[in-house]
Amino acid sequence: MEGLTTTKAPFIEKAQASGQRFIHQPYELYSEENHFAWASLYARIQARWLRHATPKFLEGVAKLNLDPRRIPKIEEINKFLSPLTGFSAKPVSGYIPAFIFFDCLRNRDFPTTVTIRDSSKLDYLPEPDMFHDVAGHVPMHTDKAFADTLVRFGEFALSAALIIQDLKDKEEQANRARSIIRALARFFWFTVEFGLMRSEGDIKVYGSGLLSSYGEIVHCIESPEVQRYPIQLEWVVNQHFEIHHYQPLLFIVDSFDHLFSLIDELERWLKDGRLNNVAPGEPSVSEADVESFLTAKI
To answer: Within a domain: residue 5?
Structure first.
């Protein structure tokens, strides 16, 4: 059996070569090694979730009824998820350009990777995989306040596309798009991917990049090397990040309502022109990301 191992999946290579972004989950292709990788990742992180994850995440895991021993079927996940918040996991073949990704969120679809990391490389993977997307992200989508916040990200992207496309000069459009995409990517990274939250006097984890990492979920809370600050919008949108190591700087929100309000503020900054020239640096913005905003059908 060929398997659906990250970077080693012929099914995914064929889909990408034919230009298919949205696919089905070919469940029959998962190998026993793939299921072993899922089971190993799931088993070892349980105690760390119980200790460090926000209660809303733990509630979400229970609501999804995830199988700890076998890779879940996305259609079964959606049977539990969709009635709760209207969200669905949407299988993809790989990278989705920025506007398309956020527009999926606006429509309550979450682009979801179907491959899983090699069982010999459980600790770190630079690419998203199914454990990151399904075990790290999707439990949060069962919470209405968080789900509405994801939709709000998509609405922000739509507002940005309208502003960008209204500009007359093509070079100005592209430059504006790069700055706004960089600001949005940083905000998403420091919240949805690597966010911390106050919870009854403690700091808990709600960011999926932390929730899906056996090592970093502890490091982010306990290590004296990590700087943890109350979130400040002007700092976040100008702060670069790197993906290949544990994060040295993290930001804390008070609640999902607080996070939602910050996106409202971010949109006001967008309309006031305060995101037109954010600080350079990571993340890099691809031409596909820029083009996705310039050609978005709005």
So the answer is: no
